[in-house]
Amino acid sequence: MYRKPQVMQQCDKGYTMENTDSVGGYKRFERVYPPAAIPEGSVLWFPQQNNKLLVHVHDDKISLLEGDALLIASLPHQSPLYIGRLNGQPCLATIIDPDASLPEDWKAIGLRELYRRTTDIEYNIASYAAQLINWHRISRYCPVCSAPMEPVPGGWGRRCTRGDYSGYPPVIPAIIVLIHDGDRILMGHKPGWGDRYGLIAGFVEPGEMLEECVEREVKEETGIAVTDLVYVTSQPWPFPSQLMIGYMARYKEGTFQPTDDELDDIRWFTRDNLPELPPPSSLAYELITLWLKQQSVKEDAK
User: Fold this and answer.
1) What is the pLDDT of residues 134-156, one digit of tens each?
2) Of 262, 235, 245, which is closest to residue 175 (Cα–Cα)?
3) What is the fold, at CATH topology level, of the domain defined by 172-293?
4) What is the pLDDT of residue 26?
5) N or C: which end of the chain has fewer CB within 10 A?
6) What is the pTM of this model?
7) What number is the average pLDDT over the span 197-221?
8) How far out from the chain centre does Cα 4 lie?
């Protein structure tokens, strides 16, 4: 669901996200890490309540909450995390008490619902903030000995105050692959999806290369073999903390003989008879759209 900035640039303190947004103009986000001091003055707030982002709503238009510490001072909340600067303006994330009453013009909105209702880079920061504050919420105590955890300077890790354990915000890698035979793509259907079909996907296992994961997942879910793997792009998927790695691959051999029960239907589709597609926010949709563009180029070249 992450939407890509047009430029990734390296700065003294790490990588920044930059883009030219049709809604918000030129924007640049620079990440910061503990023990950076929380600045005074006006900041952009990314507060969560009940796993939803709190935003300002006026005439059905959504905007981020902006103001100094007094903006949330009257609401019970956790200590804010200073996560970065957007065009030089500090960005803070926090969790608001689930039972706290909100101002009338505030609304709690999930990340899925927020998609396309704010600028690209603001959405990306909201996703980043949500994963960080949830990580801090569940990592207050050591899972080994139950001692309190403390921040690790220079990053978002936390370490045990008594023992040697340390942990970091989880990033769960998963592959997704568009399989084609030149003129058709292979799509699968899961129970409960209605008329929608999707691409083959699955989680990377310990000790497994990404390419091995593609081959294994394809074999398990369809029974076929693929070749000519091409990496396309990746997408953070904050539900809760996956990193989707997108590939294209060409059908090599085999018949449909899945070894697991994830899919209840597997079939080939041409560009002219595609089923209901995954949502536009997904990497699957992006891969399918890219394939359709490639098909159009092939058609025009004839």
Assistant:
1) 999 899 999 999 999 999 999 99
2) 245
3) Nucleoside Triphosphate Pyrophosphohydrolase (3.90.79)
4) 55
5) C
6) 0.82
7) 97
8) 11
